[in-house]
Design a protein that fits this description.
The protein is of the alpha/beta class. The chain folds into two domains: 215 residues, no CATH class; 87 residues, no CATH class. The strands form two sheets. Strands 1-4-5-6-8-7 form a six-stranded mixed beta sheet, with helices on both faces. A two-stranded antiparallel sheet has the order 2-3. Helix 7 crosses helix 8 and helix 8 packs across helix 9. It is elongated. InterPro entries: RpnA.
């Protein structure tokens, strides 16, 4: 009970389901506008946002529906699909393409108006708590469009994928030169902060701390927030347990593979000596006769 109380003394965690919609929901859309503009700096300016239904239905009743965290339309007709993802998923990019394709299909004009094929811009924005590429632990911002693979010329600028990988963002608070850096730092550390600090731009982030105090929540909202934290905590505990189990299983597998390798070498050497039967070799090496036959077959293939 004391642990929950200690956590609730901090600001609302922006990376909880409740916190994500609290900070970036329609009542606080200025935060989402500021965030998107820091992400799209030099590419596009979001002037205003209109929030629309987060649910995207299939082409027919039998197809699965898609539910976004936030779904908005800009003043110029551009569409934003904004998500916060805690856990990794197989085929994440396939999923992102499916989501944007579903939206584009809905936006395509029908009848005579559709003859021009003109579409509005669509942006898929995802803040991720997992690594997209485990071989690259430094890349924290992915930005993709349809480009020519030979000269990187952008062929279609109206479809964009923006992914922020928080585990790869490790800049210290003294090295946050851009607003995007500051947003990523805030997302990782907001729950640890009690007030606006001087390394964050006051014009952009003052409202985050104004609305982030738990005292602003009604009793019902506070209960919803606690439930959101519990779900996040359960996920973190499950992930930690899975990693521990995988590590233990890996150690056991490594030991087993080591024993198997040693047995293979013993059998191989006895076969090369060509002085013993399969049964005798199996007895000497404490393995099955089938294992001896497999090793012998392998040696024959190499000849």
């Amino acid at each position: 009970m004391m642990m929950k109380q200690k956590k609730l003394q901090q600001n609302i965690d922006i990376l909880s389901d409740f916190g994500w919609k609290w900070y970036f929901g329609e009542e606080n859309k200025i935060n989402l506008i500021n965030f998107l503009n820091s992400l799209l700096e030099g590419e596009h300016v979001v002037k205003d946002l209109h929030y629309i239904n987060v649910e995207e239905g299939g082409e027919d009743s039998g197809k699965r529906k898609v539910v976004f965290d936030l779904r908005c339309v800009g003043e110029d007709g551009e569409h934003f699909l904004v998500e916060m993802q805690l856990q990794n998923q197989n085929f994440f990019f396939d999923r992102a393409v499916t989501y944007t394709s579903r939206t584009i299909s809905r936006l395509a004009k029908k009848g005579r108006e559709g003859n021009s094929y003109e579409l509005p811009s669509v942006y898929f924005v995802a803040v991720l708590r997992f690594r997209l590429d485990k071989t690259n632990l430094e890349k924290y911002y992915y930005s993709a469009k349809i480009v020519d693979e030979f000269d990187n010329e952008v062929l279609y600028p109206k479809l964009s994928y923006k992914m922020l990988v928080l585990p790869n963002f490790n800049k210290p608070r003294e090295a946050l030169p851009t607003l995007l850096d500051q947003w990523m730092y805030l997302m990782k550390h907001c729950h640890e902060m009690n007030q606006l600090v001087n390394y964050l731009d006051k014009r952009i982030f003052s409202r985050i701390f104004e609305i982030g105090e738990l005292a602003n929540l009604t009793p019902a909202e506070k209960m919803a927030y606690i439930s959101s934290l519990d779900r996040k905590r359960d996920y973190n505990n499950t992930l930690a347990f899975a990693k521990q189990e995988a590590k233990a299983e890996g150690l056991q597998q490594g030991k087993a593979e080591g024993v198997e390798q040693k047995s293979y070498e013993v059998v191989r050497n006895l076969l090369i000596a060509n002085q013993f039967t399969v049964a005798e070799i199996a007895g000497f090496a404490t393995v099955t006769e089938e294992f001896v036959e497999e090793v012998r077959a392998g040696l024959s293939d190499k000849k």
